[in-house]
Structure formats: C-alpha cells, structure tokens
From TrEMBL, chain A:
It comes from the Bacteria. InterPro entries: UCP030820. This is DUF934 domain-containing protein. Pfam families: DUF934.
From TrEMBL, chain B:
It comes from the Bacteria. Residues 119-271, 414-547 form the Nitrite/sulphite reductase 4Fe-4S domain. This is Nitrite/sulfite reductase. Signal peptide: none annotated. Keywords: 4Fe-4S, Heme, Iron, Iron-sulfur, Metal-binding, Oxidoreductase. One of its GO terms (molecular function) is 4 iron, 4 sulfur cluster binding. It comes from Nisaea acidiphila. InterPro entries: NIR_SIR_4Fe-4S, NiRdtase/SiRdtase_haem-b_fer, Nit/Sulf_reduc_fer-like_dom_sf, NO2/SO3_Rdtase_4Fe4S_dom, NO2/SO3_Rdtase_4Fe4S_sf.
C-alpha cells in the first residue's frame, strides 16, 4: 500500500522478517520485525541488516525499545480500528520523550480526519489504501492554522523544494520534529 | 466572561468547515456510518430514537444573554421551539436534521459557542460549580481553570480517541456543587498551609452501571502544574485503559484494577517527566485568562436592603421563593438567583425559545448580562441586586419561571428516557412529571425540606439516580417498564452511592412508593433532620419495611 509522507506518495520498502524467513533476505533489504522478534534477536538483526524497522502493536509499551532507538530506522504503529487511540500516545512518547528521529508510520485503519492529530503526536508517515487520497490528506493537513495545546510541531505542508533523495527516504535522517514546540499556544 | 480572540474565532470557523466537509462526505458515501459516527459524536451529534440530537456545550455552565438568545433562536428555527438543559451543563436539541447541523454550528460560532467534544470518547465539556465567581463560600473562581482546561482539551491530538468518554468537573468551594467525586477527574480548589491555592485531584469517579466515588490521588497540586498533571493522568489512561469491553473502559475500572496507590504512583512518575515542559502554566498566561473573569463593576450597596425586606414581609409567595431560590453572593447587596426549570408537571430542564429569550432579557436587565446552567438542570442569574429581586420574580412569573422549589422534592433531575433516548429501558420524563404534580403543594414541599430526587431511564445514569437522596432507575422487566428505587445517594463533597430498597415497581406504583418513603421519613425524622440525615441515622431498613409492607 502507498505511504503518504511529507505531502507525497512513497512506496513501502519494509519487508517483514516473518514472511520471507531470515535467510531469504539479504543485508540490504530493509527489514521489518515485531517487538517480539526484535527482543529475541536484536544482536543478530543488527549484524545481518543495514536498516531495521519495528512494528509496535497497541498493547506494546514504547518504553521497551527506548534504549534501542539508535539502532532502529522506523517504527510502524498499527491501528486495528481508527478509534483505538493508543498509538497516539506511543508516537508521542517515541518522538517527544525518547527523541526518536526516524520515521514513525501509522498503518491499519487511519482516516484523513486524524492526520493532524497524528502529525502533532510525531507520526510523519501514514499508509493509505489508495494514492488518489493524497489530495484529501494534504487538505486535512492544512485544516487548522493553530492549536490550543502544546504538542509536536506539524511539518510544513507539501512543498516542491523538500529534499527527496532516496538516501533520506525511509527511516533516514529526515523528519525534523522539534520537541514540544507549540504552533500556537492560545493562552 | 471569556471573550474569544481572533485565534478562537478562526479555530471554530475551521472546525465548522471541517464538519461541513465531513457531512458532505457522509452524504456522498465517502465515509461509512461507522467512520462518520465518532466524527459526528465529537461534534455533539447523536442519532436518537426519532431524529438526530445535537448537544451544545455550555462550558462550565456560563452563558451571556446574547448566547442564551441565540440558543432560543436555534430552537425556534431548527428544532421544535424548545431545548433541554442537561446535567452536564449542555443544551440538547432533539429534533435536528443532519443537513442543518453545519448551519447551526455556524450560528453557534457567531456567539462563541460550539458542540465540540460534547460526546465521543474524548475529553468532554468541562463542568463546574454554577455559582463559580459569585458564591460567598468560594475559595477561588474555578471558571479560570475550567476555561484553561477547555482550551487545552479542545481537539487534543493525543486524547481524542480515548478508550471511553472522559469527564472533568471542577469546584472552587468547600461545598461541592459540581459533583466532582463522580467524574473521571474531579478538581477541588484548596488552600495549603502556606495560604496558596491549588487543586485536590480526584480520579476514578463515575456513574453508569458501575457507580464509583472517586478517590484523591493528590491533596494539593500547585496551579501552574494543572495541565501537565491532567496530561499525565490522560496518557496513563490512554495507554492502559481497557478497550476490549465498552463497559470496562472507563478510568474508574483501570483505577480499581491497579489500585489507587499504584495508579497515583504511575501518574506521578509520568508527571515528573512533563512537569516542566511547555505545559507548565506561566503566570502571565494565567493572568491573561483571569482578566476575562475579573469581577464586574458592582455597586456599593448597604445591607440590609430595605425594599427587599419590605417585599418579603408583604408578599409571602415572594418570601417563599427567596428562601429556596437565592444563594449568598460575595458582594453585599447582591444575590445569586436560581431560576427553576421544574414547574409542577413540567419536563425537568426544558425551556421554550420564548423562555430562553425572556431569560436573556432578564439577565440583561437584572444580572449584568450573565447566566449559568446548573447541573440540576436549572438556570442561574448570578448577579442580581437585592432591590431588584421582587420585580425580577414577578417578571419570571409571567414566563412560568417563578417556581419556589430549588432543592426541594419537585426539583427533580431527569434524563430524557424512552421519550427520546434509544438506550432507554423506561420512560423517565412522565415519572418526573407525575411526582412533581403529586408533591406540588408548596407547604408540603417545604415541610419535607431539602432532598434530591433523580431519575434515569436506564443504567447509564444520565439522570444521576445513583446519587439522588432518592434515586429512580428505569428497568425493563419482561418488556414492561419498571422502576427500581434507591435511597441514600449524595452528590456533594460527602458523595455516596444510594442503596437499592428491593424489587422494582411498575410505572403506576412509583408515585405511591415515593409517597410512602416520604411519609416514613416524616414519621421518624428527628427535629431539624433532612431526608438524607434520617437515612444516614436509621439506615434503609425502616424505609424498606414500609415500602414493601403490603407486598
Ligand atoms: C440523549 C441521548 C443520550 C445518550 C445516548 C446517553 C448515553 C449515555 C451512556 C451510554 C452513558 C454511560 C456511560 C458509561 O458508563 O460509560 C451515559 C452516562 C451519563 N450521561 Fe448520558 N446519554 C444521553 C443523554 C444524556 C442527558 C440528557 C444527560 C443529562 C441530563 C446525560 C448525562 C450523563 C451523565 C451525567 C452520565 C454519567 C456519567 C458517568 O458515568 O460518569 N446524558 N450517557
Ligand atoms: S440514562 Fe439511559 S435512558 Fe436516560 S438518557 Fe442516559 S442512556 Fe438514555
């Protein structure tokens, strides 16, 4: 499924470890593992793969990967239903508290009406069923000009001059989210 | 009163536009009803038994005359000429068309009102003591904090999809008029030994099918930390609250599961991480909000006010009204007036467009343009000069709004029940009407004395039946509407959940049953005792015995 990130469509690159089996993947394959797989084989995964993403389920505590974030390129958060809001807090902790710089992606059932909330919690990529939704999501991104409460800053809207080289595409160094910046603190 | 700035206005406009777009997407089939539902709920829109119902927020119960007039206009133009004030300081319109909602939201935005978060699994409209800012017994004006909480919680990115609805109430007085112990979070303003004001923080209260009185997790929270502390509680709840079972998703169940000490520990631990973040309130931020609630220019009036005392002396009906419907004001020469929306045989909390308009006019004429909504479903005029009270009372009488029954047995709280609500097991409104007609005699009411009688049409407890001195709960018994009776509930600082007396009664026997309880009380009460005093002294047994004597 396509990914919306920074106002553009990207393709998913992460390959789940489980599906292919460890041996089938080469070093350069961006690998996606569950929290359980990560905890069980952290050292091996780090030795065998250049880029690593972890998928957190709703009930997983983000705290569990706090010490490992330097070794992780992306965290994929899963919404079983769009109104199960645990991932908002997970994202907030990862970005705000633990200072994670890589991609935080929302997958599963998410809708455009949540886009700003997601971004303000530190999510910078969402998986959508259909690339025709890009415009709608980008509109949702611009819905409000300011907010009542401090949270994470929303990245600037879609813009032509944003760096687009593959090197910082997935789980790279992009996503400059400043900690606890307030867009507009109305008090 | 809080006045919107440019930001607030722009924000509401964007919000209304967003909802207009969502309605259009729903009508075009782009949103499933399943996806639309939480979105409309966050805009206060329910699908009820007969029609859409729109619930409009009256944050912490405070309204200007202009806002009240607009509420009347909305009732006239888009509903059937009346609205229903609720126990959560909202107004509900019961006959709304989906296509009209964006226009109604625009009309609300015009007068700085909205329906944001009056429903849905988010932080709901914050409720407060209806006498905040004017009550003589107040430590500090809680509206400042209620407004700060309103702003912080409005479309909070992290807490808009919580496990369940989340309700916060606040009181600034020792005597709790906001039922703070029966909310997910209750806040009581307190003074510490150094004389500073702050908050006692109570969590895990609530009604519904598992009524629980909240417990204190912090005796004293310095004011500047209010938001970070709330955020710590909400984050803990969002991550750990149950989502597998609707009925076990409230914070009270989480608190009960982990224990209050452990819960407090988790919150404190989270709070230490964010205590000094951008959430810490700077003195200037607090001052800026406080300025909105600066006391109005009161006149200097010497007590006693001669005209007032004379009118009381010569007009017994007025005197009776002053005994029940007035509350002591901070400022000498002024009184706080509660206008009863509970005429004998009326629907508790209902007001017609004409009444709303009249109340707006009277607020302008006699109460510095301000009104409040009480959680008991009445309207308050907070700033009335005592010399104007007699004229005010007469003018209220012309609108059918001069009932002298505040705090008495006909001041019934009732949810809409089966007349409107698709969750109801039984009717609630007709029961309230019958009881209020039965006890209509003012002399009898005054003889019975202070008492609360609350009715809910089902276990969700929207009518606060658990915490009524007498509670009536609609239950379904093999397809027939029945009513279960509890006594001993209290909603103030001594909050308690009532106890069930025994088997339920069919609708036609409810009035008799209540009559029996009252007769029993009058027989066994000691000098000066209120109903609840007697229940606390003798327990439920004597009531149970007389109630079921003939069964
Ligand atoms: C008309 C449609 C309404 C619906 C569908 C509705 C639904 C519900 C439900 C499902 C609950 C139980 C929540 C829980 O325990 O988690 C509840 C509780 C409650 N509702 Fe309503 N309600 C409605 C109207 C009202 C009205 C008119 C009032 C005020 C008169 C009200 C005030 C409350 C209060 C105070 C509670 C208890 C809060 C608590 O448990 O902490 N609701 N409602
Ligand atoms: S208590 Fe039940 S019947 Fe009454 S309004 Fe609430 S959900 Fe409806």
């Amino acid at each position: 499924m396509p990914i919306i990130k920074n106002g553009r469509i990207e393709e998913n690159v992460w390959v789940p470890l489980g599906e292919e089996g460890d041996g089938a993947l080469d070093r350069a394959t961006p690998v996606l593992v569950s929290l359980g797989e990560w905890k069980a084989g952290k050292q091996t995964l780090m030795a065998n793969f250049e880029r690593r993403a972890i998928r957190l389920e709703n009930a997983d505590a983000a705290e569990e990967i706090r010490e490992d974030l330097d070794a992780i390129d992306a965290v994929i958060l899963f919404f079983p239903k769009f109104n199960d809001g645990r991932a908002f807090s997970q994202a907030r902790l990862l970005r705000d508290r633990y200072g994670f710089k890589g991609e935080i992606r929302a997958t599963g059932h998410v809708i455009q009406d949540q886009y700003l909330f997601l971004q303000r919690c530190g999510v910078d990529a969402v998986e959508v069923p259909d690339e025709n939704l890009l415009d709608a999501w980008n509109r949702a991104h611009k819905r409000f000009k300011g907010y009542y409460q401090p949270a994470l800053a929303v990245p600037a809207g879609p813009s032509e001059d944003r760096p687009s080289d593959g090197s910082v595409g997935h789980g790279g160094a992009y996503s400059r989210v400043e900690p606890a910046v307030l867009a507009s603190w109305a008090y | 009163m809080y006045q919107y700035n440019e930001f607030d206005h722009a924000f509401l406009k964007d919000r209304t536009a967003e909802f207009r777009d969502q309605v259009a997407r729903r009508l075009a089939g782009e949103l499933t009803e399943d996806e639309f539902k939480p979105l409309r709920l966050m805009n206060g829109l329910y699908l009820q038994l007969h029609a859409y119902m729109l619930r409009v927020a009256i944050p912490y119960g405070t309204l200007s005359a202009k806002q009240m007039r607009q509420l009347g206009m909305i009732a006239k133009r888009w509903d059937r000429d009346w609205g229903h004030f609720t126990t959560r300081q909202n107004i509900q319109y019961n006959w709304i068309k989906l296509d009209d909602v964006p226009d109604i939201l625009d009309a609300l935005a015009e007068v700085e009102m909205h329906a944001i978060q009056t429903s849905g699994n988010c932080i709901r409209n914050v409720t407060a003591d209806q006498f905040a800012g004017v009550a003589a017994d107040e430590i500090e004006d809680s509206r400042v904090w209620a407004e700060i909480i309103r702003q912080w919680s409005t479309l909070h990115p992290e807490f808009t999809f919580l496990p369940r609805k989340f309700k916060i109430a606040i009181t600034g007085s020792e005597h709790d008029r906001a039922a703070v112990k029966l909310h997910d979070i209750g806040l009581r303003m307190r003074r510490n030994e150094a004389g500073e004001t702050g908050f006692e923080v109570i969590v895990g209260g609530g009604q519904g099918r598992t009524p629980i009185v909240g417990e204190t997790i912090r005796d004293f929270l310095p004011k500047q930390h209010l938001l970070s502390y709330l955020e710590a509680i909400l984050r803990t709840y969002n991550l750990l609250g149950r989502r597998d079972n609707l009925y076990k998703a409230r914070i009270k169940i989480l608190v009960a599961a982990v224990g209050i000490e452990k819960f407090a520990e988790m919150v404190e631990e989270e709070w230490l991480e964010i205590k000094d973040s951008a959430l810490a309130l700077e003195p200037e931020q607090i001052r800026a909000i406080e300025e909105h609630f600066a006391p109005p220019q009161y006149e200097t009036i010497a007590e006693p006010v001669a005209g007032f005392d004379a009118a009381r002396f010569t007009d017994p009906a007025f005197a009776a009204w002053t005994r029940t419907n007035l509350f002591p004001h901070k400022q000498p020469g002024y009184a706080v007036v509660t206008v009863s929306l509970k005429p004998a045989g009326g629907v508790p909390g209902d007001a017609t467009s004409a009444q709303m308009e009249a109340l707006a006019d009277l607020a302008e004429k006699y109460s510095l343009g301000e009104l409040r909504i009480a959680h008991e479903q009445n309207v308050v005029l907070p700033d009335v000069r005592k010399q104007d009270l007699h004229r005010l009372w007469q003018e209220l009488g012309e609108q059918g709004l001069a009932d002298a029954n505040i705090g008495l047995i006909t001041d019934i709280i009732s949810c809409p029940g089966l007349d409107y609500c698709n969750l109801a097991n039984a009717r609630a409104i007709p029961i309230a009407q019958r009881i209020s007609r039965h006890f209509a005699d003012p002399a009898l009411q005054s003889e019975i004395g202070p008492i609360t009688l609350n009715i809910s049409g089902c276990i969700n407890a929207c009518g606060h039946h658990h915490v009524g001195n007498i509670g009536i709960l609609g239950v379904d018994k093999k397809g027939v509407e029945h009513y279960q009776i509890t006594i001993g509930g209290i909603a103030d600082e001594n909050a308690a959940v009532g106890r069930i007396l025994g088997p339920s009664f069919p609708a036609e026997e409810v009035v008799d049953a209540i009559d029996t309880l009252i007769a029993t009380f009058r027989k066994i009460r000691e000098e000066g005792e209120t109903f609840i005093d007697t229940v606390q002294r003798v327990g439920i047994q004597p009531f149970k015995e007389t109630l079921y004597a003939n069964h």
